[in-house]
UniProtKB/TrEMBL annotation:
Protein name as catalogued: ABC transporter ATP-binding protein
GO biological process, one term: iron ion transport
A molecular function GO annotation: ATP binding
Membrane topology: Peripheral membrane protein
Source organism: Rubrobacter taiwanensis
Keyword field: ATP-binding, Cell membrane, Ion transport, Iron, Iron transport, Membrane, Nucleotide-binding, Transport
Gene3D superfamilies documented for this protein: P-loop containing nucleotide triphosphate hydrolases
Amino acid sequence: MATLKTEDLSLSYDGERVIRELSLEIPPGRITAIVGPNGCGKSTLLKGMARLLKPKGGSVYLDGEAIAKMPTKEVAKRLGILSQGPVAPEGLTVRELVAQGRYPHQSWFQQWSREDERISARALKITGMTAFADRPLDTLSGGQRQRAWIAMALAQDTEILLLDEPTTFLDMAHQLEVLHLLERLNAEEDRTILMVVHDLNHAARYAHHIVAIAAGRVFTSGSPAAVVTPDVLREVFNVEADIVPDPRTGAPLCIPHGLSSAAPQKVG
């Protein structure tokens, strides 16, 4: 099973050091959620782990190999990334979008194969997008568009998926739609999923492992029960909250009731 980790990783964004000597190992075959306050470096970390940002120090390792030294096409065959708020050319259909996920597996002498067709069709089926394959993306609902983008990432046929806030700008029903899909992909496809999550309760409900980031470093990590605690909420998010068991799943449920008097964690 594919592995992904960082060792003493430092990253800058717009000239500012955001991630500072961060070491992190992603549990293979599990769903990991990265949480933290705005500006703490969550999205920057994800971009660095996907090799979209060049490290200022340290390394990212994919299957034990430094990702910075790997050919771009080889990385794309083993690591799928879905950035926040992706944009496609006007008029592009779902089928055409999903086909782009097969580009890393093609070459100048082999453009489109039966295998490409099979995997693309399977990605459409898994995400429930087969009926929408010939629809332009801009005619779909927000949840349908997000499923189309996930289908494209699936078409890369990678063991690891990185997603940056996959439920942002979606209403409650579409958020659940996307999260249930990711949960199913992990359970049925053994995909390792690493996602930046804005909603702490979503992280606790759908992730097996949570990493709380503060000031560009890992503040704590572990199971939802170990991370979603009043102390972590106070120190990382500057929020006072009660934590109760979810009546359906038993996962920790955060009920905020005020701001903490503690100074919030900042990047700096």
